[in-house]
Amino acid sequence: MKKNVGKTDGVIRLILVAILVILYFSLGLKGTVGIIVLGIAVILCLTVVTGVCPLYMLLGINTCEKKGKK
């Protein structure tokens, strides 16, 4: 699969993961809300690790930096 998540996008996603995990533990989220918050955090983390976002593929978005021709 072709990578479509750039560096800046990845950093933003990791910041969101940190915020979601902090909210989960600091607010003591339980039940369905807690599962949803952690699920979103896991999905964001996986997209950063793999560099591929399936939603971006469907929408035709690519945040990777374009390589300049030399």
Structure description:
With 70 residues, the protein is an all-alpha fold. The protein has helices at residues 7-27, 31-50, 54-59. The protein has one domain (7-59). The protein is 67% helix and 0% strand.
Helices and strands, with pairings:
Blueprint: H1 7-27, H2 31-50, H3 54-59
Describe the structure using short key phrases.
mainly alpha, 70 residues
Short description:
The chain is mainly α and 70 residues long.
Order of helices and strands: HHH
Largest sheet: none
Beta strands, count: 0
Q: How far is the N terminus from the C terminus? A: 26 Å
Q: Which whole number gives the mean pLDDT?
A: 92
Figure out the total of helices. 3
What is the total number of structural domains? 1
User: Helicity, in percent?
Assistant: 55-70%
Low-confidence stretches: none
Please state the structural category.
mainly alpha
Question: How large a portion of the residues is in β-strands, by DSSP E?
Answer: under 5%
Large-scale geometry: elongated
Question: How large is the radius of gyration?
Answer: 15 Å
